[in-house]
Amino acid sequence: MAKTRRRPYSEQRPQDLGGGVWSVPVPIPGNPLGYTLVYAVDSPRGPVLVDAGWNHPDAWEALSGGLAALGLDVAAVRGVVVTHFHPDHAGLAGQVKEASGAWIAMHEEDAALVRLMHRFAAEEHASFQSDMLRRAGADPGEVGEAMGTRPDPPALPDRELRDGDLVDLPGRKLRAVHTPGHTPGHICLHLEDADRLFTGDHVLPDITPHIGIYPYDRDDVDPLGDFLDSLNRVGELGLLDALPAHEWIFHDVAARAAEIRHHHEEKLIRLRTLMAERSRPLTIWEVAAMMTWNRPWDDLAPVLRSMAAGEAAAHLRTLETRGLIRRVPEVDPVRFQALDS
After folding, report:
1. Higher-scoring residue by pLDDT: 122, 129
2. Of the chain's two ends, which shows fewer C-beta atoms within 10 Å, N or C?
3. Nearest Cα to 316, choosing from 339, 296, 295, 299?
4. Is the Cβ–Cβ distance between 8 and 34 less than 8 Å?
């Protein structure tokens, strides 16, 4: 199998990966990830894409031109399977559908979120973000700067998938594997006739995907716990080659899934220890500030701090679910405190 290391987008090229599978790098404007790897899987009735890339003219040119360079016509695409609803994966699905008549499929839980996004006005989104940041304990002067802009919602799916469903791909066996965590409806796609797994953002070769909880103070979900369980499930699929949505193709997805799980378990232990050393309950913002990120907290831009707070909240929720910390009742901002071990 062809394999690449992470290089700038300018050095990326469409690739024939063999076995009727191709990859096309599609740029993500203004994002340090650089690009999404969109995959095409051949079938007698036309290729099916795994993800589609960000909705931007440069991205569309890269996707349609990259497919053409591989001898594929975007107008012949049969369908687009979206691993999850984020804009760097689902953004161009609607344009592919317009060009080819293709269907769009995603997991039913992400489909429900997309429908909600279409009903949610931009002003409501801003109010939601502002209140969420306030309840997390963000500095009032920082709330406005920490609010990100909402991208346009992706196209509504035509088909909804559940765990174990086979994608409509004649002559091949491409099965949806529900791997919640990064989003509630994230799926990996197991190409069973080739021992390959399209991992989306669930398992990446070098970085770990963002696992956040929104709003930060929800107490009815545990996305990090779901993610850790999903990593175990992927590991049980056996020895598979991983075709991720970012970075590079790699061998043995189970080994990498185990590494990522270990990373988060260590992070949970460190966080519980830090909280036990504090004499008072802490806000989500205070917890995020004392965690380790890829740069010091003081150097993080406000929008990145808001993402860090989402990830801190997910770790707090898992610790709460495990009975290692408690949520202080009836306080605003919400606060958490370590329990005696």
Report:
1. 129
2. C
3. 339
4. yes
